[in-house]
Structure formats: structure tokens, C-alpha cells
């Protein structure tokens, strides 16, 4: 809500020297969020005066229209002689009154004006447009369809145009929270300012309003649940050509809206002033009774923005005998729009259900100033005053023939006022600071509440405060008006912590292990769309395609919860590479969401009591499975190049090693085997197992995936299910904390073996056989070479291993280490058909 300080002063007598920033500080102390205080016209310097065009000479020989004008500015130039001004605008004529800035003046933006010769003519100043004066769009302010401001003929030549147009002002930009909807009006903000300064409020809603009668414009409200009150008033004989006065246009502009026509400007002005949205209908276009009802299935309405909308049965409509003529509380329709020939106007001032208006506005993606106010709750008692205020302004400004008809229509669905019981000491108990009974009653009365009682209060909130519904709301009002700064700060007494849970320690250990390996952690939104799953090449039956859909997603392109961590990680990788970070190693740990096969419906839990254990269990059953996963992605150099030599580009082996790093951190032993699994390259994909349990995959991404997602070539990735990894350990009787091994002081014995096996034999099987056959003396085993070629025959491969043997209590003899090696080779030969190379 943009609040001009000059307009605010009409309702509260602020101290003479009080600046916009001073007022903002006061309002912030009461809990309002004043984002900025705009200084309008702070860099504008005169002389800026009213001038009257005496002569216009059209200059020839130029590609665009150029006019040489003589303008009377009275005595403002010190001589009384007309000013000679060259101007390129064509929307003004001889005898029009315009805004002239004389030499020596400065326009907004630091544009200094001086006398000079241009287009072969002397130019002593400038005829100004609205945009040049910082007033916004040139199409506003009586500019004859855009361009130079043309002033009303009654303004005096030589008058100060800065004061006339209100060009110098301060505007408070207030971010109104949902519970302070009454502050979406000058009336509401003025009430807060009056409380802040302890001065009276001149309430603009206190008007003499005639009583409803039976001969107003006919209105029928069918949907009483959506429309609490509907007031209709009629003004006839309005001059369609009557312009909005400059003061009204300027106030609407400063409040952030665009002047359009007298009828529209008046309704906007009253809405800004009182907070009650209004709508004006061309009575000549109305067909019969105005109605309020819910939409029928398949009905359509063309709104004022020119869009034809298919209506929903929950939409609240304004209708006449022809059908829908407006979306109630959101936007009117084109059929009854105020036009250039409209002289008879029906004013609507209604009070609509906030929830209904909010849903309609979101359903049609059609937010408006009216819906913004109705969503937060509009004072139902303001409808009569707002309609009367609009009628008064139209009669005053609409020409000599403008007359208000005597008919007053009011359809009302009265409700019992809200009464809240509260102990007078309740604000004291909430804030921890003593407030007297007099203070509590006074502060509640200042916000408009009716207070009865002494110790046990009965409080009736004002109609403009629908947010006051319980004692805590009332306590907050007392506390904020007395000053949040008076509330003492105290830290709660927290019981001694029990430290991290085992699962939390494990996850931190995994993160530290990956970070120590050079990976950078990222946090991504847990949302996914079908496009990235298509790019992954997932089959229709792939369980990763079964996503939990959100009812109200942040983005329509990502309406589901992620079933894998890779989409977010690959997006982060692409963003990093696109911004110059070509060598990237990223990891993320977090939940994925796998819907259950039956997908039970979640219960609606009560809010007036604690849910029962059965209800909580039912809610838990309706939630999707949420396994905890960890994933990495790599691109570019894994080891950097430099003066020490060339670097090393990442490969699928680094992704596999990342999985081993995670497994070591939790004390698990991974088995790695070749596999085919999207989105990985079928020849460079490894399945990761603990025992017989598949816990993840790693390798190089498929080239088609890399191309579709615009990733660097040979991008690698790994994803592990940490829950499965640790569960497998538990099932095998292992510990989640890796125990430190005993360090032997005795020397190591190294034996190398090269085994020839069929190319189809998994390396992991050979390695498992060697480990088992070598027995307790084996300290470590490492594959350091893989060879294929004619020397060993087609369809075969040579695997070279380095075996390290060590005993804890003695130095091994050559015979002992050789015997252990031979046992390992024998078992490998038995299980995999391995043959010792060179034998």
C-alpha cells in the first residue's frame, strides 16, 4: 500500500515538521512493515509554471513534427513577455494551458533546462509531459491521449505548477501482512498513525448515508454465503467528457494506480481511501436485475482485460438477465464496462467472502487491487459509506447535469458480532510485563473494540478487524501498541541436550568424508517434473516415474516430489559449468519420496485437540516412503593440471570410488558389478551391492542424457540409498561405526599375481575369491592392471593384483606369504576358472 504523506495529513494532524521517515518509524514501532519512503520530486527545481499557448508555428523540413510555440507564462519569467519554446509534441493546441519549465529549472533525473537554439529557432524552456515530471505514464493527467500535460482552462497563467500538480511529496510504501487488511486504505493507516501520535482521527467513513428503500436498482443475492452485503447506488447525467481533477489523478498516481476516466478514477480513489472496492456499471448496458450467484458449469465471461474465461462452479459471479457480467470481487466484465458515452452509472459496493475471492483469483491467475483487499477481509460496514462517497464525488465532478437518484439498494445478511472473553491480566501473562486494567481497556478501545467488564472483559472487535478472534489476538494488540521494545527478552530454559542421534552422526560422517574427498555439498529443491525423467530415458514402468504430485506446486513444470537426487544435482552442475566452474564435484544428501502402492488418503486431523495415536498412525500410513540418499556428480578435471604435470579428467571410476568412500564412512563393504540402469551408460554403469542387496548405482551418464540436459561430455554420477546401506550392515551384524584396525609393527610382505579369466567373469568375483582364499594374513588387495590382447587370447582378460600380507605378532616368512598367495589363487581358479598368467 502506497500512502502519500500529504493525503494522510487530511485525516490526522501530524506535527508540522514530521517527515515521512519519522512517520514510518512510528508505524514500524506498531508492527507495520514500511519498506521504503519515496521522496517524490526531491530533485525537481523550478521555475515550473502554468503557461498558455498563444501561437504555434509548424516547422518544415524535419523528419518528425517540430513546432515553434509562443507561450504566455505571466510574470513568472520576470518580463511578462511570452516564452519562445520549440516542442516536438502535437497533442496540444492554441489556447491550451500547459506546464512550462523555464531556463534554470531542473527536471527529475538531473536534467537541467537552459535557453538554447535548436532546429534553427530559439527555445527558452520546455513544455512538459507527465513522464518528464516523474508522474508516470504520459497517457495520464489530461494529456489528450498521451504526451504534453494539458491543464484545465480555469487554472491561472503563471501559477506554480509544482504545487498545482503535487509533484513534491513523500510516499510510504507499506507491505501489508494478511492480518492487517484494514491498512490497505488511507483510513486504516491513518488510524494507526493517530494511535502512534496520540491524536484524533478524522474518519472519512463518517458520512450521512440515506436509509435503504425499495426503489433503488434491483439486486438479488442467491449466494448469501459468498456475499454478506450488496449496496447499489445510481448517478445519472454524468458528463462522459468530464475529466478527473488534477488532485484526484495525482493521488491515484502516487498510490500506484493509473488514472483512466472520471468514473474509474472515483471508484479507485474511494477504494484507496476507505478500503472498500467498488465497481461502476453502465446502467444503459445492464439488462434487468443485478444478481450474485455461483457459476454454472461451462459458463464463460470476458473480463475487462479482454480474456474469455471458462468459469468454475465455485466462482462467485455478478450477473444480469444476459448472464455473467463480472467475477465478484475480482474483475468486471466487458459487457457493462463504462464507455466513452456512459452518462448513467450504477455503483456497486459489496462485501464478499474472503476465501471465495482468494480461490477465484488464484484459479484464474487474476489478481487485482479489489481481490487483494477482499482476500484479507473488508469492513462490511464500509460499503454504505463507500457508495455514498463515490456518489458524492461523481455528482461533484461529473458536470452540471450529474444527479444522484434517490433509490438506495441494500441487500444484507446480518451476523452476530464476535464477542471475546478475556481476563484483564491476559496481556500481562503473555508478555511477561505488567499492564494495568486501564491500559488494557484503553488500548483495545483505540483499535476500535468495545470493552465491557472489569476483571473479566468482554471485548467486541470492530468490523474492520476480522483478524481479532481470540484472547491472544487482543493481547497482541495491547502489547504492540504499548511497544514491543518494552517486552523483556528472556531465553527459555532448555534441558541439557542428548547429543546427535546415531542416524545424525552417520549422515554427518558421510558428508565429512565426501567433503574431504573434494566434493562440495549443495541443497536443491525436492521437486521434479516429467521432462527430466524423459531426458533420463526411464521406462514407463520405472518406479522413479511414480511421483507424489503436489496440489499447489511452486512451478507447474515441477509438480512432483523427487524420487531420485540426480535431477537437482545435474541442474546445479549445469549451472556451475555455465558460469565458468568447469571442474565440479558436487554431492547432496537428502530424502526422496516413493509413493506406496495403495496410496491411502491422509485423514484431516482435528485442531481443537491432540490427535489420537490411531489418527497419527493413519496419517503416517498415508505418507510416502522417504528413504535417505546420497549422490554425487562430477565433470571436468578430478586432479588439476599445473607446473607439476598434466591433470586427470574425472571418469566413471571416480563415481564408483565416491560410493566406496561413503561405504567406508559407515563401515560397509561394497561389491561392484557391471550393470545396465538408466540414466547411466550401459557399458560404464556399476551396480553397488552390500551382500545381495542393491544399494545404488554409479558410472558415466548416457550420452543421450548428457546431450538432453546440456551437460559436459563424460559426466559421471553416483547415487546410494543410505538407509539400505546401513540396514544391510545391521542385518549382517555389522557396526555402523567403522572400528579402527590394529596397527602391526611388523613388516609387510607383498605378492603380485596376474590371473587370466574369461572376459565375462566379473572382477568382483575374482577379488572375493582371492580375499577368502588368502585368509587372515591378507591386509589389502588392489587391482592395478587389466590387460586384453592377442597374447592371452580372444574373449579373455588378465587381472593383475597386488596382495599385501602382514601378521600382527611376527614377521612373516617367504613361505608363509607364498602359501597364502597360492591359496588365494587356488580358490580363484576353482570359483572363476582363473589361470595364473605365465604358468
Describe this protein's structure.
With 839 residues, the protein is α+β, with helices and mostly antiparallel strands. The chain folds into 6 domains: 2-42 and 170-197, Phenylalanyl-tRNA Synthetase, Chain B, domain 1 (2-Layer Sandwich); 48-167, Beta Barrel (OB fold (Dihydrolipoamide Acetyltransferase, E2P)), CATH 2.40.50; 219-412, Phenylalanyl-trna Synthetase, Chain B, domain 3 (Phenylalanyl-tRNA Synthetase, Chain B, domain 3); 420-486, 2-Layer Sandwich (Phenylalanyl-tRNA Synthetase, Chain B, domain 1), CATH 3.30.56.10; 502-592 and 627-731, 2-Layer Sandwich (BirA Bifunctional Protein, domain 2), CATH 3.30.930.10; 749-836, Alpha-Beta Plaits (2-Layer Sandwich). The protein is 26% helix and 26% strand. The protein contains 21 helices and 42 strands. The protein has a 7-stranded mixed beta sheet with strand order 28-31-32-38-37-36-35, sandwiched between helices. A hairpin with a 2-residue loop joins strand 9 (116-118) and strand 10 (121-123). It is elongated and about 120 Å long. The termini are far apart. Residues 731-736 have low confidence and may be disordered.
Largest sheet: 7 strands, mixed
What is the CATH topology classification name of the largest domain? BirA Bifunctional Protein, domain 2
Class by alpha and beta content: alpha+beta
End-to-end CA span: 89 Å
Count of all domains: 6
Mean pLDDT score: 91
Major β-sheet strand ordering:
28-31-32-38-37-36-35
Poorly predicted runs of 5 or more residues: 731-736
Amino acid at each position: 500500500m502506497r500512502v502519500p504523506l500529504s493525503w494522510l495529513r487530511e485525516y490526522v494532524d501530524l506535527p508540522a515538521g514530521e517527515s515521512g521517515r519519522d512517520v514510518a518509524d512510528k508505524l514500524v514501532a506498531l508492527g507495520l512493515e514500511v519498506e521504503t519512503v519515496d521522496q517524490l520530486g526531491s530533485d525537481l527545481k523550478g521555475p515550473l509554471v502554468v503557461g498558455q499557448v498563444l501561437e504555434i508555428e509548424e516547422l518544415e523540413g524535419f523528419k518528425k513534427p517540430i513546432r515553434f510555440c509562443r507561450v504566455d507564462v505571466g510574470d513568472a519569467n520576470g518580463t511578462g513577455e511570452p516564452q519562445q519554446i520549440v516542442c516536438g509534441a502535437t497533442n496540444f493546441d492554441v489556447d491550451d494551458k500547459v506546464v512550462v519549465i523555464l531556463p534554470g529549472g531542473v527536471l527529475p533525473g538531473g536534467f537541467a533546462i537552459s535557453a538554447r537554439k535548436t532546429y534553427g529557432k530559439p527555445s527558452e524552456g520546455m513544455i512538459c509531459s507527465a513522464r518528464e515530471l516523474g508522474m508516470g505514464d504520459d497517457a495520464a493527467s489530461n494529456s489528450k491521449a498521451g504526451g504534453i500535460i494539458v491543464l484545465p482552462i480555469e487554472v491561472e497563467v503563471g501559477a506554480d505548477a509544482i504545487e498545482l500538480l503535487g509533484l513534491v511529496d513523500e510516499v510510504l510504501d507499506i507491505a501489508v501482512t494478511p492480518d492487517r487488511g484494514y491498512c490497505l486504505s488511507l483510513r486504516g493507516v491513518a488510524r494507526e498513525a493517530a494511535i502512534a501520535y496520540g491524536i484524533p482521527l478524522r474518519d472519512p467513513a463518517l458520512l450521512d448515508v440515506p436509509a435503504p428503500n425499495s426503489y433503488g436498482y434491483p439486486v438479488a443475492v442467491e449466494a448469501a454465503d459468498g456475499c454478506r452485503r450488496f449496496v447499489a447506488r445510481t448517478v445519472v447525467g454524468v458528463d462522459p467528457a468530464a475529466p478527473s481533477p488534477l488532485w484526484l489523478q495525482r493521488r491515484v498516481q502516487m498510490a500506484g494506480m493509473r488514472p483512466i476516466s472520471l468514473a474509474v478514477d472515483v471508484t479507485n480513489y474511494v477504494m484507496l481511501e476507505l478500503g472498500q472496492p467498488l465497481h461502476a456499471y453502465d446502467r444503459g448496458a445492464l439488462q434487468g436485475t443485478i444478481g450474485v450467484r455461483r457459476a454454472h458449469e461451462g459458463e464463460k465471461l470476458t473480463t475487462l482485460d479482454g480474456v474469455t474465461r471458462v468459469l468454475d462452479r465455485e466462482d462467485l459471479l455478478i450477473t444480469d438477465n444476459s448472464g455473467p457480467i463480472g467475477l465478484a470481487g475480482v474483475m468486471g466484465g466487458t459487457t457493462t464496462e463504462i464507455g466513452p458515452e456512459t452518462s448513467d452509472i450504477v455503483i456497486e459496493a459489496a462485501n464478499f467472502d474472503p476465501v471465495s475471492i482468494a480461490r477465484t483469483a488464484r484459479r484464474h491467475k487474476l489478481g487485482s487491487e479489489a481481490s487483494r483487499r477482499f482476500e484479507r477481509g473488508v469492513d462490511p460496514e464500509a460499503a454504505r459509506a463507500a457508495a455514498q462517497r463515490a456518489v458524492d464525488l461523481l455528482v461533484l465532478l461529473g458536470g452540471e447535469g450529474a444527479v444522484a437518484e434517490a433509490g438506495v439498494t441494500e441487500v444484507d445478511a446480518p451476523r452476530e458480532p464476535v464477542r471475546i472473553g478475556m481476563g484483564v491480566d491476559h496481556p500481562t501473562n503473555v508478555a511477561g510485563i505488567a499492564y494495568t486494567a486501564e491500559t488494557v481497556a484503553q488500548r483495545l478501545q483505540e483499535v476500535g473494540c468495545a470493552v465491557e467488564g472489569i476483571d473479566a472483559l468482554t471485548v467486541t472487535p470492530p468490523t474492520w478487524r476480522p483478524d481479532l478472534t481470540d484472547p491472544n489476538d487482543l493481547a497482541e494488540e495491547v502489547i504492540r501498541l504499548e511497544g514491543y521494545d518494552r517486552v523483556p527478552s528472556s531465553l527459555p530454559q532448555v534441558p541439557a541436550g542428548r547429543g546427535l542421534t546415531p542416524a545424525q552422526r552417520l549422515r554427518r560422517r558421510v558428508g565429512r568424508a565426501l567433503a574431504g574427498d573434494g566434493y562440495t555439498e549443495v541443497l536443491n529443491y525436492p521437486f521434479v517434473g516429467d521432462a527430466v525423467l524423459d531426458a533420463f530415458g526411464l521406462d514407463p514402468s520405472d518406479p522413479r516415474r511414480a511421483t507424489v504430485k503436489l496440489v499447489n506446486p511452486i512451478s507447474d513444470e515441477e509438480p512432483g516430489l523427487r524420487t531420485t537426487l540426480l535431477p537437482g544435482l545435474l541442474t546445479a552442475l549445469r549451472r556451475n559449468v555455465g558460469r565458468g566452474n568447469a571442474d565440479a564435484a558436487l554431492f547432496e544428501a537428502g530424502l526422496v519420496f516413493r509413493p506406496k502402492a495403495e496410496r491411502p488418503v491422509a485423514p484431516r486431523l482435528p485442531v481443537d485437540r491432540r490427535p489420537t495415536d490411531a489418527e497419527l498412525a493413519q496419517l503416517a500410513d498415508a505418507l510416502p516412503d522417504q528413504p535417505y540418499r546420497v549422490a554425487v556428480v562430477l565433470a571436468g578435471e578430478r586432479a588439476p593440471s599445473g607446473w607439476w604435470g598434466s591433470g586427470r579428467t574425472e571418469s566413471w571410476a571416480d563415481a564408483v570410488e565416491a560410493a566406496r568412500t561413503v561405504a567406508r564412512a559407515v563401515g560397509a563393504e561394497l561389491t561392484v558389478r557391471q550393470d545396465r540402469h538408466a540414466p547411466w551408460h550401459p557399458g560404464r554403469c556399476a551396480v553397488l551391492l552390500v551382500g545381495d542387496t542393491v544399494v545404488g548405482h554409479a558410472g558415466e551418464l548416457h550420452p543421450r542424457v548428457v546431450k538432453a540436459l546440456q551437460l559436459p561430455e563424460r559426466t559421471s554420477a553416483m547415487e546410494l540409498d543410505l538407509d539400505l546401506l546401513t540396514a544391510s550392515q545391521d542385518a549382517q551384524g555389522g557396526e555402523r561405526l567403522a572400528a579402527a584396525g590394529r596397527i602391526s609393527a611388523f613388516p609387510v610382505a607383498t605378492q603380485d599375481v596376474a590371473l587370466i579369466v574369461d572376459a565375462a567373469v566379473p572382477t568382483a568375483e575374482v577379488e572375493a575369491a582371492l580375499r577368502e582364499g588368502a585368509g587372515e594374513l591378507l591386509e589389502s588387495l588392489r587391482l592395478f592392471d587389466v590387460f586384453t590382447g592377442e597374447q592371452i587370447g580372444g574373449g579373455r582378460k588378465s587381472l593383475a593384483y597386488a596382495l599385501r600380507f602382514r601378521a600382527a605378532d611376527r614377521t612373516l616368512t617367504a613361505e608363509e606369504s607364498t602359501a597364502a598367495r597360492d591359496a588365494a589363487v587356488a580358490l580363484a581358479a576353482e570359483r572363476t576358472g582363473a589361470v595364473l598368467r605365465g604358468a
